[in-house]
């Protein structure tokens, strides 16, 4: 009888396990409450500018705010846990828009890349822009 206890416990443990996917997911948490996340660029209010020419591939994160501001982040994964991100702000009213050009943020190791390489988030909270000249990210 003692020999049957261990296999019985293992069998119960295996039965309690459930199959889960270990692939990365883009999780919308409390930070994005009330926001609509889309994985394509079908309804942006502004045309996308040409990407920076430094690299050939980028992960794209575009955030559209309710105060007529679009923030575009293009992140290139350098490798070994490092990335470089380029950012552009576009202000728009109707068909008129103002873009100031790309600026390169520091190379860092703290990037977050969604599972889909092209993501648009329509935010309900307006973006106020950088506070000072050194607050670029």
Question: Could you explain how this protein is built, in words?
Answer:
This protein has 137 residues and is mainly beta. Helix content is 11%, strand content 31%. It starts with a helix and ends in a 15-residue tail after the last strand.
User: What is the number of helices?
Assistant: 1
Q: What share of the residues does DSSP label as strand, in percent?
A: 25-35%
Major β-sheet, in short? 7 strands, mixed
Q: Runs with pLDDT <50, length 5+? A: 19-32
Radius of gyration from the CA trace?
22 Å
Q: Tally of extended strands?
A: 7
Helix content: 10-25%
Give helix and strand order, one letter per element, not per position: HEEEEEEE
- Quote the distance from N terminus to C terminus: 65 Å
Q: What structural class do helix, strand and pairing data support?
A: mainly beta
Mean pLDDT: 75
The backbone outline, from C-alpha atoms, is elongated
Give a nutshell description of this structure.
The chain has 137 residues and is mainly beta. It has one helix at 2-16; strands at 36-38, 59-64, 69-79, 82-93, 96-99, 103-104, 118-122.
